[in-house]
Amino acid sequence: MGCRSCDKPKMNYRKGLWSPEEDQRLRDYIVKHGLGCWSAVPAKAGLQRNGKSCRLRWINYLRPGLKRGMFSQEEEDIVINLQAKLGNKWSQIAMHLPGRTDNEVKNYWNSYLKKRVMQAQGSIPNSLATEVTSMSTTEPPSLHHHHHHHHTKNSSGSTTTSHDQDANLSSGGISISAPAPAAEAPFDHQQHKSFVFSGDWMPTAAATAGPESYSMSAQHWPASTASSGNVTPSHAGAFGDQMSGSYGALQHQQQQGSAAAMAGGGYFDLLNMGDIYGGFAATSDDLLF
DNA sequence: AACCGCAACAACCGCAAAGGG
DNA sequence: TCCCTTTGCGGTTGTTGCGGT
């Protein structure tokens, strides 16, 4: 783990929100070189951030396979269920939610679910988490994805093609219609909230970044995920948070006609995939692709 | 139109674990 | 075995936008 070669003098790192340029630099670097020593990334990528910040940005925002938008009822149930079982083990909970990050799960819990569960426990004093869960699933499906947020910042539903296959977990099986393709939206810190993500930078970058741009094709992804859009819990568990992504929206974007922007190969070969996802390829039969 | 409060989410901070030298 | 660095995790804070007044 130690990375002595990465040693460098202390410097004043930039803080706060990431600019599109910074995102682009980080993307470019990781796409070209894969994941390695995070502390070395800022210098090599030309970023005035610390490695920690770069890592967080990649994991929570730039990493391919992320699902943006509101939580489905199914996801919500899983969070409630697992939080009751595991406590605030957000990374473990996120493993069961393909495309969701621990940070996202944590935020969703803190901003919404916690209140709802507490409310339920207040009205039903001895209620257990399972009861809370069943309560939540009794709501009319038509109301889901609207009542959660008083504001409609996240107007997108995600293309929830993935399902947690753990028998212990509930599965609502609610499908959500997808919003307009991401490629039509400029990369913007506000607008990004409203489209299905899953590497939404890929077509956007390809369309806007000029000669230095790159693109990705679904064929570069593990077949089990690229073809189905699913990452099973066993996958997620094996890879940890780094591989908890669902690539459903990637597929979706292609189906939506973004294939032209995505096609053409690029730097993103299987070798880099292995690097990016932490060297999983050699250890799991599930990953023969 | 301006202000305020709230909700959502991005990002930071601190700590602990992991791992190499 | 110890020390040091990196990584990962969870708690917390900061920022932004929306709705209400």
UniProtKB/TrEMBL annotation:
Domain Myb-like: 10-62, 63-113
Primary localization class, coarse: nucleus
One GO cellular component term: nucleus
GO molecular function, one term: DNA binding
Composition bias type Low complexity, residue spans: 170-183
Stretches with biased composition (Basic residues): 143-153
Chain ranges of the HTH myb-type domain: 10-62, 63-117
Name of the protein in its database record: Uncharacterized protein
PANTHER family in the record: MYB DOMAIN PROTEIN 55 (PTHR47997), R2R3MYB-DOMAIN PROTEIN (PTHR47997:SF67)
Pfam families: Myb_DNA-binding (PF00249)
Keywords (A to Z) from UniProt: Activator, DNA-binding, Nucleus, Repeat, Transcription, Transcription regulation
Region (Disordered): 131-186
A GO BP annotation: positive regulation of DNA-templated transcription
Annotated source species: Oryza brachyantha
Record InterPro entries: Homeodomain-like_sf, Myb_dom, Plant_SW-associated_TFs, SANT/Myb
Subcellular location: Nucleus
